[in-house]
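To: structure desk
From: M.T.
Subject: fold request, one chain
Message: Could you run this one when you get a chance? Sequence is below, nothing fancy, just the single chain.
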Amino acid sequence: MIRIFVLNVGTDMLIGKQIKNPPNKSTMKIDNKFNIGQTVYLVTDIDQNEWMVTSITVSPNGILYNCSFGTINAGCYDIELSANKDVLRVCGIEKESN
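Reply: Done. Structure tokens follow.
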């Protein structure tokens, strides 16, 4: 989970700073499934290569995980990622869908 503190002080915005009794303090809670630096796997990747979450983008459309594999970068939603390697997919065995 990421917790972001945004403080409005005049025209300046301080992000990630905690001030005792701050004016106009608002908190946004983001329930991210994966963390920056975490190894993830693309659920559709036949080879189940290890990708790393390099950044997280929060938008009105949801959370986008920016992932890297070598020099390749991809923006993925949590439904496209898994924390666990799918060894059956590597062996060419597809899971039965319910």
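Reply (cont.): Confidence is low (pLDDT under 50) at residues 7-16. Let me know if you need anything else for the meeting.
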